[in-house]
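Re: folding output
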Amino acid sequence: MVNVRGRVVRFALRRWVALVLVVLVAVFIGQNRDRVSIDLFWAHLKAPLWFVLLITAIVGVIIGWLTNRRRAQRAAGHRAAGSGHASPDSPRRAQ
């Protein structure tokens, strides 16, 4: 039997943690408005720090989304192929 309440609690906790982190990032970005010099390989430019932080946060979200999507696809592939791994709830097979 699947523990539905535990899943709901984990889901809600993950959403609250994500919301708190988004608020912290927004406040951090809002408080850092100085202009900074950026040197990346051959590119040299000046930009507001809030813009650099925002771009960095967006890149982080994209990387997290891509890795989570890949993990979900891998898990779906294991389930479809019957990966042979026993779940913690299932009885062990004698070897």
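--- second protein (sequence, then structure) ---
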Amino acid sequence: MIAEKFYIEKFLNRADADRLLDFSLGLHPVRAVILPWGNLARFVSLGSYTEFPSPHHIKRYGDGVRLSTAPKEVKQIAAVLTEFAKTPVNYISFNAYLNERDGMAFHQHREDKVNPDQSVWVVSLGAVRAVNLRPVGCEDKSKYETIYPAHGSLYIIPSAYNTTHEHEVPSSKTPCGVRVGINCKSVPAPPLQLSLSAETADRPSIYDCHAGKKYPADAVYVGREVRDRQTGKVAWPATPFGNTNRRRTETPEGKAAWAADVAEKMKDPEFRKQVESLRGKNLLCWCKVGEPNCHARVWLELANAVRS
């Protein structure tokens, strides 16, 4: 049962819950949602933040949607839930139910069905509103689970429930005030597509760092540790960007493996900042200039595209 296993009434203390509610109600409403989902979907979206926004997400919520540049209150609740869930909680969405007429009919999160973890952590603020869960399509109300999330509470919809169950916030028959639901998820990084396209004159380039080759004095080395063959001393220190698994990016298999390595690294917000620090800089590698399969080309492209 959700109420027994996945509900924490005093997840936030009263002072923290009050502050978070005040912050939430100070957000500029993004849009009012009134949709004919079965019976009803009526609420106000106060904004949504994620580290991996889709083009649709950016179009709906604007450019300031990245969690890494969100207000400190959003980052704080993401950090608290990440600590609690022991997994990166990197999607935070604020929805407000303004009065008893607002609500959302039974539904699942279809967009999450491709994710390994489809869990949803919901922090409730403000007025107490019922939340119902039922097996998919079930009309027998004796099989419904109902919880009444208190101000500052947390309830969790387990990953499996997004397949086996539906949930709703029904409209109320009695007057009630504003309730804010903060829906939080762990969203995986999107698959990384490596185009490995050639440089152009209006962007930084990759240079060969072999002895005797010419390159800009401020170019940044992005390879593995390399030692002098005669002295054994480190000639080129290791960097976070080295192809440490020695993927052969000239083969389809090696390119796919390197893409997987990069995608795994890019899940780390701190590493993303390191990549961003390369923006606008020329890079150094051991490949010949213009080599289309150079591993450093990935960092060139990401550094001049990524925004942490």
